[in-house]
Amino acid sequence: MKTTTTVAPQVATAGAFRATRRRRTSRSLVVTCSLAVAVCALFVLTMMVGSFQLSAGEVIASVLQLREDPSVDFVVRGLRLPTAASALAVGLALGAAGTIFQQLLRNPLASPDFVGINSGAGLAAITGIVLLQVSGVAVSALALAGAVAAALLMYVLAWRDGVAGYRFILIGIGATLFFDGLIGYMLTRAQLSDARQAMHWLTGSVGQADASELRLLLGALLLLLPTAVLLQRQLRALELGDDTARALGIRTELSRAGLLATAVVLTALAVAVAGPIVFVALVAGPIANRLLGPATGGIIPAALVGAALLLTADLIAVHLLPTALPTGVVTGAVGAPYLLWLLATTNRQGAGG
Amino acid sequence: MSSSNNLARRASALGPGLAVLCVLLALVAFLSVTLGSRSIGLPEVLRALGNLDTDGSINSTVTLELRVPRTLLGILVGAALGVAGAILQGVTRNPLADAGIMGINSGAAVFVVFAVTVLGVRGAGVYVWFAFAGAIAALVLVYAIASLGREGATPIKLALAGVAVTAGLASVTTGIVMTNVETLNELRFWQVGSLAGRYAPVLTGVAPFLIVGLIASLGFGRALNGLALGEDMARGLGQQVTRTRAAAFGVVAVLAGAATAACGPIVFVGLVVPHVARFICGPDYRWILPYSMFLSPIVLLLADVLGRVVVVPDELQVGVVLGVLGAPAFVGIVRYGRLSEV
Amino acid sequence: MRAWRPALVLTALSVVLAGCGSADTSGTTTAASGAASAAPAGPWSFTDGSGKVVKADKTPTRIIAHAGEAAALMSFGIKPVGIYADESVKTDANLKDLDLTGIEILGQEWGKIDVEKAAALRPDLIVGDWWPAEKAHSGLEEGVDEKSKKLAELAPVVGVSQGKSIVDLAKGYEDLAKSLGAAVDSPEIAANKKRFEAAVATFKEAVAAKSGLTVAAMSPADDKVYVANPEYAPELLDFQRWGMKVINPDTPDPGFPYWENLSWENADKYQPDLILFDGRSFKPTSNADWGKKQPTWFKIKAAKAGAVVSWPAYWLHTYGHFATELDKLTAAVKAADPNIGD
C-alpha cells in the first residue's frame, strides 16, 4: 500500500512533467516559427520602401534572381539587399549573444553592450582610423580584435574563483568608461576628416558593411548559432543532471567558457560590421522569454527577436523619420523605455543587487 | 580592544598627515605657478606675484592672469572631483563609481552641443552654464531612473542607469554633430578635459558652487560610514537611507557638475584618488573625504604641470596626461584592490 | 509632391543603366538650366584629377555634384540636378548664400548619400574633388557608407585635383564647365573671373608696396592657439606665390602637420604685422572678444593693433568667392603697418 501511494503521484508527476514539456516544446516551436515568418516579412518589407516603392513580388523576384530587370536589380540587389542583410545578420548575432550573456551571468542586465566589449571594439577601430590611417576591412578586423581583447581582459580581471555576475558587470562598466575616455582622446588627435570618419563609424549603422564583411558575419552565424544551441543544450543537461554530471564540473566550466566565447565572437563580428549598436542585445533575450512563456532561454528565438528589432529600427531610422538618423539612435530610443521598465521591476525578481 | 587602539593610533597619525598634504599641495601649487610651456625665470615670477599687478610684460601677464587662475581652478576642480568620487563610491558601494559613470559627462556634452548648434554660442566661458545644467540634468535623470522600483537606487541599478543614460545621450550627441562639422570640431576638444584657457571669469563663475559643495560634503562622513555597513544596518542605526542618498547626490551634482562645466570631463581623478585615500585612512569616511579633498588637487596639478612642459611650445591637455597615467592605476585597483571592501 | 510613378522612373532608370543616354525629359524633375540646354551634342571628354580621361557619347546635362564643386559649376551657369554635402547646406561655406531651389539635396552628412534619390534623378555625371592623398573623390572616400559608394555606379565621376592652389582648382572647374557647354566667356559669367584677375593684380600691388609686411594665419581656440602651415593650405600657398610673406611655422604638430599648436603662454611666439584669422569662426567682433577672453591674445602686437582679417580657410572653389575674399585682404594689407610685428 505504502509503495503504491508513493509511486502513483510519482507517475502522475512524471506524466504531468512530460505533458508540460510537450506543451513547452510545441509552444516554443510555434513561437520560433512565427518569429521566423515575421523576420522574413520585415526583411522583404525593408526592401520594398524607399525613394520609390516596389512590390513584394518584385523584391523577391530580384533577390532570388528570377527576373532580370536592371533598374530593379540595381535598387534591390545593389542598394537595399546589403543593408537589409546586414540588419538581419547583425540583429541575429546581437540577439543570440545578448541572451547567452544574460543566462551565463544570471542577470538580465548583463548584455555585451554594457560590459565593455562594444567600447573595446570602438577603441580599436578608432585607433586604426586615426593613428594607422586604415579603413574598410582593416577597421572591421581591428574592431573584432578589440572586442575579443576587451572580453578577455574583462574575464581575466573579473576572475576570482569563477566569474560572478556583478563583479563582471561592474568591471565591464569601469572598462567602458576607460575605453570611452581613450576614444575621446583619439578623436582630438585626429585630422578633422579622420575624426569625421571615426564619428561616422561610432554612430553605428547597418549600412556601413561591405560585402566581404557581411559574408564573414553570415558565415559565422551559420557556424556559431548551431554551436551555441548545442553547447547550451549540453550545459543544461549538465546543470540539471545527476551526480555523475555534477562530478564532471570541469566539463560544465568548459561548456560555459565555450558558450561565452561564441557570444563574444558573435558580438565582436556584429560590432565590426555595423559599429556599436546599443540595446538590441539587451532587450532581445527578455522579449523572447516573454513570448516563450515557460520555455525560456531559447537562443534561436532571441536571435530572431534581435533581427526583427534591428530591421524595424532601420526601417524607422531610414524611412519613417523626417531626417535619416543612425540606426543606433533609434535602437536607443526603443531600448531606453525597456531598460526603465527592467530597472523598475528587476528587484522583485531578486536580481537587482 | 586592540583594533580600537589601532584606530585611535591611526586617527592620531591622520591629523598630522592631513597637514603634510596641505604643505604638499602648497608646494605643487607653487610649481604650477612657476613652471609652464613658457620659461619664465623664478625672480620674475616672484616679482609678478609680489606686485600683484601686471607691469605689461607678457611674463607677468602669463604668471598672474594665466597661471594663478589656472592653479586655483585646478585646486578647486581637483578637490571637487576627488570628493565627488569618494561620496559616489560610498553611496553606491561601487568601487568603480565616478561622476562619469553617472552620466554627467554625456549630459554636459549634449547641452554643449545644443548650445553650439542651436543657439550658436562659442567658447569656454559660455559653455560653462550649459554644461552645468546638462550635468545636473543627467545626474537627476540617472538617479530618478535608478530610484524606480521598490528597492530604490541600489548600487547596481545606479551603475546601469548611468551607462544607459550615457549611451542614450551619446547617440543623440553624435547624431547632432555628424551634420555639423564645426560642432564636431568644438566637441572633440571639449571632450578631453583641460585646465588651459579657463581664466578669471570661469573661475569666479564656478568657484562659489565648488566651495559651498566642498564644505557641505565634509558633513557626510558619518552618514557614509553608516551606508557602508549596508542599507539594512544603516536603517537599523536610525539613518534615513533614502534621504541621505538623495542629499549626497545633490552635493555630487553640484561638485562634479561645476567641475565638468569648467574643465570638460576629466577622468580618473574621481575614480582613483578616493581609493588611495582609503588605502591611507582605512574605511572611515570622516577621514577619506578630507584626504580625497587634498590628494586630488595634488594629482591634478602635477598632471597639468607635466602636460605643460613635455611638448613645448604646445601643451598636452590634463585629461590626456591623466588618461595615460591613470590607466595602470585603474587596472591595479580593479585587479588587486580590495573591491569587496568598499 | 514627389509621387514618382514607379513605372516611369524605372523605365527611365533602365534607360540610363543600359548605357544609352537618351535624355528623355519626362518632366518628373526640374531639368538642367538654360546653360546646359545649349550644351554641345558631344562626344564629350574630360581629364579627371586622377589623370583618367572620362569619355561619353553625349555631353552630360544631368549632374550631381558635391558641395563646393556644385557652387563652382553654378558660378558658370551650370545648375546641377542634385547636391550632396558634408554638412547642412545652410552652414556650408560654399552653398549657404546660393539659391538651391529646384536642386535635390542628396545628403547633408559626411558618408551618407541617398543613392536611391540620386538614381531617380538619372544623372549622367557626378562631380567631386579628387583627393590625391586619399585617391578618392569627395564623398566616396574610404569609411563612407557602403551604399554611398554606389553613387559612382550611376554615372562617371570626375573632379579637379585638390592640391597646391585654389587658382588651379577654380581654373579646373572653369574647364569642366566649358566642356559641359557653359558660356564661360559670356560677359556676366566672365565677370567673376575678370573681378578675380583684377583682385589678384591689386593684391600683388598692395603686397609689393609693403615689402616688409609679414602675416600669419591663426586660429585661436579655448585651450591653445593654432598657427596654420601654408604647406597644407592651398589659398595660403597662392598668397605666398603672389608675394605675401606668410609665416611658415617652424614646428608643426608631427601628427597633424596642418598646424603648429601654441599654448596660450606662448601665444606671442610669432609677431606678424597682420593676422589672417580662421574664416570659419571669424566675426567682426572676434578680435576684441579673444582679447577679452585670453589675456595673452593681445600680446600679439598685430592683434592689439586690430590688424586682423578673415582668412578663407580650406573651402574656396570659385573665382567669385576668391575675388571677394582677396579684396578684403587687400584692404587689410593696405591698412596694415609693416612695423607692428618683429
Structural features, described:
The complex is a heterotrimer of chains A (353), B (342) and C (342). Chain A is mostly helical and 353 residues long. Chain A contains 13 helices and no strands. Chain A has a single domain (23-349), classed as ABC transporter involved in vitamin B12 uptake, BtuC (Orthogonal Bundle), CATH 1.10.3470.10. Helix content of chain A is 78%, strand content 0%. In chain A, helix 2 crosses helix 3 and helix 5 packs antiparallel against helix 6 (165-188). Chain B has 342 residues and is an all-alpha fold. Chain B has a domain at 87-265: ABC transporter involved in vitamin B12 uptake, BtuC, CATH 1.10.3470. Chain B has helices spanning 2-34, 42-51, 58-92, 104-117, 124-147, 155-177, 181-190, 200-217, 221-228, 231-236, 241-263, 269-281, 285-309, 318-336. In chain B, helix 2 (42-51) crosses helix 3, helix 4 packs across helix 5 (124-147) and helix 12 packs across helix 13. The longest helix of chain B is centred in the N-terminal third of the chain and has 35 residues, at 58-92. Chain B is globular. Chain C has 342 residues and is α/β, with parallel strands linked by helices. Chain C has two domains: 6-183, Nitrogenase molybdenum iron protein domain (Rossmann fold, 3-Layer(aba) Sandwich); 189-335, Nitrogenase molybdenum iron protein domain (Rossmann fold). Chain C contains eleven helices and 15 strands. Chain C has helices at residues 6-17, 34-37, 67-75, 115-120, 146-149, 166-179, 187-209, 234-241, 286-293, 301-304, 319-335; strands at residues 44-47, 53-56, 63-66, 82-85, 104-108, 125-127, 130-131, 136-137, 157-158, 214-220, 224-228, 245-246, 259-263, 274-278, 308-311. In chain C, strands 10, 11, 12, 13, 14 and 15 form a six-stranded mixed beta sheet that branches. In chain C, helix 7 (187-209) packs parallel to helix 11 (319-335). Chains in contact: A-B, A-C, B-C. Chains A and B meet through helix 6, helix 7 and helix 13 of A and helix 6, helix 7 and helix 14 of B.
Produce the secondary structure layout.
The complex is a heterotrimer of chains A (353), B (342) and C (342).
Chain A: H1 2-48, H2 56-63, H3 70-104, H4 117-130, H5 137-158, H6 165-188, H7 192-203, H8 211-240, H9 243-247, H10 249-274, H11 280-292, H12 299-320, H13 327-345
Helix pairs in contact in A: 1-2, 1-3, 1-12, 2-3, 3-8, 3-10, 3-11, 3-12, 4-5, 4-6, 4-7, 4-10, 5-6, 5-10, 8-10, 11-12, 12-13
Chain B: H1 2-34, H2 42-51, H3 58-92, H4 104-117, H5 124-147, H6 155-177, H7 181-190, H8 200-217, H9 221-228, H10 231-236, H11 241-263, H12 269-281, H13 285-309, H14 318-336
Helix pairs in contact in B: 1-3, 1-13, 2-3, 3-8, 3-11, 3-12, 3-13, 4-5, 4-6, 4-7, 5-6, 5-11, 8-11, 9-13, 12-13, 12-14, 13-14
Chain C: H1 6-17, H2 34-37, E1 44-47, E2 53-56, E3 63-66, H3 67-75, E4 82-85, E5 104-108, H4 115-120, E6 125-127, E7 130-131, E8 136-137, H5 146-149, E9 157-158, H6 166-179, H7 187-209, E10 214-220, E11 224-228, H8 234-241, E12 245-246, E13 259-263, E14 274-278, H9 286-293, H10 301-304, E15 308-311, H11 319-335
Parallel strand pairs in C: 3-4, 3-6, 4-5, 6-9, 10-12, 10-14, 14-15
Antiparallel strand pairs in C: 1-2, 7-8, 10-11, 11-13
